[in-house]
Design goal:
Layout: H1 9-30, E1 35-39, H2 42-50, E2 53-55, E3 69-73, E4 76-81, H3 85-95, H4 105-113, H5 117-126, E5 130-133, H6 137-142, H7 144-151, E6 156-162, E7 180-184, H8 189-199, E8 203-208, H9 218-221, E9 225-229, H10 235-246, E10 250-253, H11 259-262, H12 267-273, E11 278-283, H13 298-305, H14 307-315, H15 327-348, E12 351-358, H16 359-369, H17 379-387, H18 390-393, E13 404-408, E14 413-417, E15 422-425
Parallel strand pairs: 7-8, 7-10, 8-9, 10-11, 11-12
Antiparallel strand pairs: 1-15, 2-14, 3-4, 4-5, 6-12, 13-14
């Protein structure tokens, strides 16, 4: 797999996994473990960003809808995210195109060609869809949302209470054993976080709405979890989710700002339902600014924040050039796992905290690592020159092969990469191991 990039994605992957590993080490020590640290190979970390699972004798569906992608408009580029049927319908409605029969990509391209990207972006968003026009890093820094995100901390902490009940008994080897994690996330970042927590022994129950499907990512991201469905907008679903919250120790959510509160599950209500509940929330565009409630995904944030533009300049192409992996999603996932682990450590000492993260703020971190946040030119080239390493800048064009272990999933056999972290020390140290095989969404009952 070619992984050339304008940004140091290999170093970024290793750094992100390190945050989660360090938090796991701290928690294990708090539980009496003798962990001294962890070993992380940035190449193996990057391999997990690219995909940890390889099916044998069967195939995984393609990750993108045929209409998803980058389109040239009148004066710039725009990316349409159409993987979900309702997002595809919104994009087509904004373009004045029918849903049935579904138009081809050439028809969509012709419709986009005559539209100004910013105007079309607004129309798609207003229709309930997801789109992002391509901006430079300098334009994003001057944009009200980019400016707001630059002011946010990488992880925003708020104390929300004091622990009133004892924590489940865990061990240094499995520091989250007995900890119930309610997973209200979808796509990549949140599921990466809860996969890591499951690997440390947490009981993870993922909840998706009826009809939501992620066939391209299920084998990758349902590992270690039970997955159920609930319609949170229905009376029965609202009642059941509150019962689940009351039995949880952590909630990890991936809703837009205000969306969870709109379901009657704001932080105050969560703490009322389950005093001492650890809360970790993530979204796409940040928690302040005019776009804090906007729907978004990794590929869209790359377009908005200048990353795709920097790649285009770096490689001298005439089209946006995103990162070779969805690094914002994966890195945010490991950061969210780190936040959950640190919050749980604080919970053991009686403090109850909520943490908030976003893909857009993680993008700022990547741009800082590349020395790119104040430049609209070619940050990748400048970073590569300073690093003096083709490996860091992706110039080697790929990642090494790593040992894999056999795994049986719901769909069939495959091979999974060894965990991206090896903990070190004497005596009892943590280990990443998943007890529940990967399986389809909605296969389990919505109960602990």
């Amino acid at each position: 797999m070619a992984l050339e990039s304008a940004y140091p994605v290999r170093a970024f992957a290793g750094w992100a996994v390190r945050q989660a590993a360090d938090a796991a080490v701290g928690l294990s020590r708090r539980l009496g473990g003798s962990t001294t640290g962890s070993d992380i190979d940035p190449d193996l970390a990057l391999a997990w960003f690219a995909g940890s699972f390889t099916p044998q004798g069967w195939s995984i569906p393609p990750p993108w809808d045929p209409l998803a992608g980058d389109y040239p408009g009148a004066g710039g580029w725009i990316r349409l995210h159409t993987n979900a049927p309702h997002h595809r319908s919104a994009a087509l409605a904004a373009l004045g195109l029918p849903v049935d029969p579904l138009p081809g990509r050439d028809t969509v391209s012709a419709a986009v060609a005559g539209r100004e990207p910013e105007t079309l972006e607004r129309a798609v968003v207003a229709a309930g869809g997801c789109a992002a026009r391509m901006l430079t890093a300098l334009q994003w820094t001057g944009h009200p949302q980019g400016n707001a995100v630059n002011q946010e901390p990488l992880i925003d902490w708020t104390r929300v209470g004091t622990a009133a009940a004892p924590a489940p008994a865990s061990s240094p080897e499995r520091p989250l054993a007995g900890v119930r994690v309610l997973d209200l996330t979808r796509i990549i970042a949140g599921p990466v976080a809860t996969r890591f927590l499951a690997g440390l022994g947490a009981e993870v129950l993922r909840i998706d709405p009826p009809g939501w499907e992620e066939p391209a990512s299920e084998a990758e991201l349902t590992l270690g979890k039970r997955c159920a469905r609930l319609d949170l907008a229905s009376a029965a679903g609202a009642r059941r989710i509150r019962e689940l919250v009351a039995g949880a120790d952590m909630v990890v959510s991936g809703y837009r700002k205000g969306a969870l509160a709109g379901l009657g599950l704001d932080s105050a209500r969560l703490q009322q339902l389950r005093p001492g509940l650890v809360e970790v929330a993530l979204n796409a565009y940040g928690w302040t600014g005019p776009w804090s409630g906007r729907r978004g995904f990794d590929s869209l944030v790359q377009m908005s924040s200048g990353i795709a533009h920097a790649g285009m300049l770096h490689f001298g192409t005439d089209a946006p050039r995103p990162l070779p992996v969805q690094a914002l999603d994966h890195a945010t996932g490991y950061l969210a796992a780190a936040a959950a682990l640190r919050a749980w450590l604080l919970r053991l000492d009686g403090g109850v905290f909520a943490a908030r993260l976003s893909l857009a703020r993680t993008a700022v971190q990547l741009q800082h690592m590349a020395g790119a946040c104040t430049s609209a030119q070619t940050p990748g080239r400048a970073a590569a020159a300073r690093q003096g390493s083709g490996k860091e800048s992706g110039q080697e064009g790929g990642i090494p092969s790593f040992e894999q272990v056999q795994e049986q999933t719901f769909w069939g056999p495959g091979r999974r990469l060894l965990p991206p972290v090896r903990f070190t020390g004497w005596g009892t140290v943590p280990r990443l191991a998943w007890d529940v095989p990967a399986g389809p969404l909605g296969a389990a009952a919505p109960q602990w």
